[in-house]
Amino acid sequence: MSSVTADSPRLDFSGSPVNKALTAEDKIELFRKMVRIRRFEQEALKFYTAGKMGGFLHLYIGQESVAVGTLSLCGENDHNITAYRCHAHALTVGMNMNELMAELYGKATGCSKGKGGSMHFFAPDKNYWGGHGIVGGQTPLGLGLGYGLKYLGKEGCALCYMGDGAVNQGAFHESLNIAALFEIPVVYIIENNGYSMGTSQKRSSSYRGCLAQRAEGYDMEWDVVDGSDLYEVRAKAHIAMERARKQHKPSILEITTYRYYGHSVADANHKKYRTPEEIENYKANHDPIHLWRRRLIAEGVLTEESAAAIDAEAKKEAAASSKFADESPAPTVESIMDDVYWETDNKTEASKLGRHFFTD
Amino acid sequence: MSRTLTFREALREGLDEELARDPNVVIMGEEVAQYNGAYKVTEGLWKKWGDKRVVDTPISEAGFIGMGIGASMLGVRPVMELMFWSFHSVAFDQLVNNAACVRYMSGGLINCPIVMRGPANGGTNVGATHSHIPEGLFAAFPGLKVCAPATPADAKGLIKAAIRDNDPVYFMENTLLYGTTGEVPDPAEGDFVIPLGVADLKREGKDVSIISHGRSVIHALQAAETLKEQHGIEADVLDLRSIRPLDVEAILKTVKKTNRVVLVDESKGFGGVSAMVSHLIQDEAFDYLDSPIKRVTTLDAPAIYSPHIENEQLPNPRRIVEKVLSLR
């Protein structure tokens, strides 16, 4: 059982096997992925504020290393699922900015045809299962992905992301119990940004030391990860994922991170429940993108100029996506009734019998 | 050739045939494997198919139902047994936010071929928490299919269709039907599957239509015999079999024939399946009605325990006969 806690001294994980194997191009790609997430979301924020989108917008800015670090370890048999803060995972698995921005705009060209919105991005062809709006509601689904892999005889694992608020949901605890009991290859990743919406962890969770320690009650392995260090995220996630793939044993990783904005853009009080000093301290000293850039420059992998070029490219891509979204057609009113049932979209012999699904 | 089977045997035969037909079918739930099923529907299946195909779960509905939904997204076809449908409340988020919505929210990218089955009914004197009748509730969530068979043959044919369906199907079985018997076609005669959404006219009449589903069909048939013997009234008894999809044509056909309707539904009076059917009839066949549409439903209180009067809270043959006679 791990004895690492949030207060453990900093270690250098660059020499771990999974990090040593990274080429310079791989490292730059990780940087590019984090930058693209940030620029995409800043673009989204701009147009959300301008009234181009409906609903909520839960920004991932500040947490980029979590999605990018963990998903960079996925192979073709690994699957992943997350909660409502899902833009980063979608971009990291290879969904393009256009389909995501168009979904935020509620357009027909969106990844879910304008039916899902910000909290509901999906790409099953990329092993990405969303995008789920109920806190903790995706945790049994992540268990099911792991169960499915094992049942189908595939050597892979399921990554199930959640916020720190989800640790208090019953569905999460039920999932842990079954995951350990049935030996399901799932890794639960708590993206701990310190706040369950506007309520700090200290006011919402009863815990000793860290949240991941709750795994011990289920006889499950766990670890705490410094999310501002991409090498550490990869090194520790790799161990948990291999444990799942090779031994069918679940784990919990609690990755400490921070969000710069509110719970969602609609969270008007986020500068009241957190001090400006706290936010500025994180930005100045723990920003995962800045730290990774600095590290790569120190390693001689990246230059300030090439980093700036990558950033400029990401900004340009993001700007193009909002233009694409803005110019895309809205879904038709008729399309409201599509995609409710597989059967109404794919007529079968049985459908010809005149059975009715809808009132009109 | 057909044989006489109990409702539970017919269901079991359907499950067994689908386990044999498709290696991705897996049965899961509370007590389904080593205990042989709380209501013995899955008796013998664990011994025959083993730990991988027939799986006991903890009493942990949100966890194991959500697990089944997640596995179904990957192509497994889980058949999940709820020991009582009344326990749906524990897993409600998984049932209505995940299973019902994921296809829509993903713009049609994700399928969820899962079956949830188990007993849903009152009439067993187990009090309010164990007597919910939620077919109308779940039929109100687009994305879900709901059925409630009344006979052994229908139970077998419909469960097989449900397992092959690519949408989530919620299968409501009445505990009090498990021991009832009926003719079921022999497997040697071929694959016996009844499509969801096709009603069955269980009795022919000309004077009044009694439209029902689940165990109430049995009551409706008993009431129809009393009406014939004591009052000379011939009733059409239409068994909906599935609630969503609904066989609207069959409903309109019987109404247009008899011009009088009594709907029998174990749901509570406020809302429920019969409220929807009543609306459809007045909307589509108002001109054919010679009398207002009447309903026999479960009286609008939480289920009472008392064995002396619980049957009076539920639809029963006497209440159906009285309601039909009130049409005059």
Automatic annotation (TrEMBL), chain A:
InterPro entries: DH_E1, PDH_E1_Alpha_Subunit, Pyrv_DH_E1_asu_subgrp-y, THDP-binding. It is an enzyme of class 1 (oxidoreductase). Transmembrane segments: none annotated. It catalyses: N(6)-[(R)-lipoyl]-L-lysyl-[protein] + pyruvate + H(+) = N(6)-[(R)-S(8)-acetyldihydrolipoyl]-L-lysyl-[protein] + CO2. Its cofactor is thiamine diphosphate. SUPFAM superfamilies: Thiamin diphosphate-binding fold (THDP-binding). Its EC number is 1.2.4.1. Gene3D superfamilies: 3.40.50.970. Keywords: Oxidoreductase, Pyruvate, Thiamine pyrophosphate. It comes from the Bacteria. It holds the Pfam family E1_dh. The pyruvate dehydrogenase complex catalyzes the overall conversion of pyruvate to acetyl-CoA and CO(2). NCBIfam families: PDH_E1_alph_y. This is Pyruvate dehydrogenase E1 component subunit alpha. It comes from Luteolibacter rhizosphaerae. The gene is pdhA.
Automatic annotation (TrEMBL), chain B:
Gene3D superfamilies: 3.40.50.920, 3.40.50.970. This is Alpha-ketoacid dehydrogenase subunit beta. NCBIfam families: PRK09212.1. Coiled coil: none annotated. Keywords: Oxidoreductase, Thiamine pyrophosphate. SMART domains: Transket_pyr. It comes from Luteolibacter rhizosphaerae. InterPro entries: THDP-binding, Transketo_C/PFOR_II, Transketolase-like_Pyr-bd, Transketolase_C. Residues 5-180 form the Transketolase-like pyrimidine-binding domain. Its cofactor is thiamine diphosphate.
